[in-house]
Amino acid sequence: MKKLIFSLLFIMIASSAFAFFDSYTIKREELPEEAREMLDKYFPKAKIGMIKVDRHLLKKTDYDVRLVNGTTIEFKNSGKWSSVDCKSREVPEGLVTRPIRNYVKKNFQGVKIVKIVKKSSGYEIGLSDGVELKFNLLGQFKGAKIEE
């Protein structure tokens, strides 16, 4: 029993110690160059409200950028974006591949793409009407999920 309590106590202390690896900042210069270029290209007038720097155990760092207008952008260590969530606004057209844009335009008229997540298996797209679509890396439709 003492070993169990000691183990739980150790895990709690260790996990709280790792929380110090995360830091918050508002300095745009701390982002990788590719991330800064993406922000300049697709969100030129937007102001950064906060940047959270997530440092992981294997020296991998991720960046979560929150713009003043509520848009959230996640960047990988290299500066490549992995997710853009514009809440109720439309994701910039250049971030969505042409086959996905064409599919949404054809099958979901009048609906905006408000979120895009880029994964190794493909893309997840969030629409303004609550529907989530999945596409492979080539932009071919794979499935849909309706949020309730």
Tell me what you see in this structure.
A hairpin with a 3-residue loop joins strand 7 and strand 8. It is built from three helices and nine strands; from the N terminus they run H-E-H-E-E-E-E-H-E-E-E-E. It has helices at residues 2-18, 33-42, 98-107, and strands spanning 23-25, 48-55, 61-67, 72-75, 81-85, 113-119, 122-127, 131-135, 141-146. Mean pLDDT is 85; it is low at 15-20. The longest helix is centred in the first third of the chain and has 17 residues, at 2-18.
Which properties best describe this structure?
9-stranded antiparallel β-sheet, alpha+beta, single chain, 148 residues
What is the CA-CA span between the terminal residues? 45 Å
**DSSP strand tally:** 9
Rg, please?
19 Å
Give me the secondary-structure category.
alpha+beta
Strand order of the largest sheet: 1-2-3-4-5-6-7-8-9
Give a short synopsis of this structure.
With 148 residues, the chain is α+β, with helices and mostly antiparallel strands.
SSE inventory with pairings:
Layout: H1 2-18, E1 23-25, H2 33-42, E2 48-55, E3 61-67, E4 72-75, E5 81-85, H3 98-107, E6 113-119, E7 122-127, E8 131-135, E9 141-146
Antiparallel strand pairs: 1-2, 2-3, 3-4, 4-5, 5-6, 6-7, 7-8, 8-9
